[in-house]
Amino acid sequence: MFLTRHSRGQTLPIWSMGICAALALAFTAVQYGEVLRWQVRAQNAADAAAVAALSVQTQTWNQQLALVYAASVEEWRIKNLLNALQAAAYADPGCTNGGANCQAAYDTLKQQYYRAVQRYTTDVQLVSRTSQYSFGQAVSDARAIVAALQAHCGESGGGDCAFSYNVVAVQPRATVNDVEQAAGIWVVNNGTTANVNQDFMPAQIEIVTCAKKAPAVPSFLNFQPPTFTAIGRAAATSAMVTQEWIQPGTIVNPITGSPFQPAETLGLTNTTATGPNTGSSNWNWFAIAYGGNSAKAYPTFDAYSMKVTGPEFSAATGWWNAIPIKPFSGALDMGKVTCTAS
Amino acid sequence: MHRFVTRSRGQALIETALVLPLFLIVMFLVVWGLQVGVLGERVELVARYGGMVSARINPYQQYSVYAAYSAASGAPLPTSCVTPPSGLVTNGGPLAAPASPTQPFWQPSAGSTATSAICGKALENSSALSAPMLLGRTAITVEAANDTPAALVGIIGSQRRRVATLNQFESPDMATLIGCYGELQAAFEHSVDPSTDASATTIPSVIGAPAAGPLSLSCGS
Questions:
Q1: pTM, whole model, 2 decimals?
Q2: Binary contact (A56, B56; C-beta < 8 A)
């Protein structure tokens, strides 16, 4: 009765407890929001670094592929030039054009041949240079890129200064697909897994970004929350992101309105079409056509089939980029991870 | 004792009147803290997905024979550069959210959302690299703000702005590669279009030994 009389009307303790609880809730909300934000930021930094690291391998391969394509165009030209040279040497009716100009055609073709071989030599030497990029270099360069991101953090080409970047592993990707022709169509994973020279194995990398962050509210009612650790863990691999099968002699370049690789007359004006009938038209030995044949897609098989009706230059190319994948190194050993303290 | 009871009558009302504003301010702080926390995470996520989409919006335009022909002929295809739609912050963007749009409580202040993307290339020339290398780069910035509850404006300002920035990288596209490696550009262009080859005709010499060494980089960042 004494207590009741004295405490009648006193709600201050209850309000105080309520305010303390609400403050604790506010503290938790702010703190939790910060933790989530930093976790996503750490993941962003790790993802970007993983992709950047393998871009070195992929760009070297893209250089090489562009050069191989250029060399293959030149090879086709040289093959046709040799045919034309032989035809001119034997006074093919296509270049006699009245019986007097095969020698001139031969001389012109010879000059073209020399130039084509010069260009081909250049292409092959450049292919040689780009193809000597070893897997060891890819690993070393991937690590160097990650280090450079850290060193140049905050700059236009750098990483996020808030984090330490740790390379957990760089290794060849465990599996590569087999692509082969079966029953006239291209099929993926139809046989045994491809056995690829290690220097041409796609790499995979795993990166951890880490930072120890002070809490947004340093202390609350004598409670000092510990720093939290923001960790991003990401992996990437080199992958063929676009694949093409192109007949540049027939497929039109939308910019020029002409085929990517139009027919070439080789500077000869005194020749006419002649030679074997290919089934569609007479073949002109003294011009270079990059040709094309009818192809048919089989969507249900993910495959293509083609009926060969004449000479054709076609190219199957694949272009590379680094893409994110799931981390692959198993349980993370935090003892090997460096964390930025802030 | 009777006098004491009489004097304490109504004390609860007075205490409540005194403390309730403080309590409400603290509750507003809880609300504000939740909103700011969610927004901070969301702008980071928009930067993340915006960056990923930007890097892979049109791989055929970036990596293809078509792109190589165009670059070698001096008319490179434009580098894909997509600014993350600001609607992503409010879940109303073109990338459909798995659930219904975010409730108004969690939305940023009207007109406060801004996104940008700057695409280009970055040159890495660390001595630890086997050769100077290029990276395709997209710098993403996403920002949005929460209005502060009126009761807290005097304490923490009228708005709380959250900004996320991200440098997203990728393998340089064909336009960049061919534009930045002069040897590659010349070899590709001359082979696909021999009319551009102005070199003198000589009898080709035999290749003595396969060439070695990376291609020379001929452009800056």
A1: 0.87
A2: no
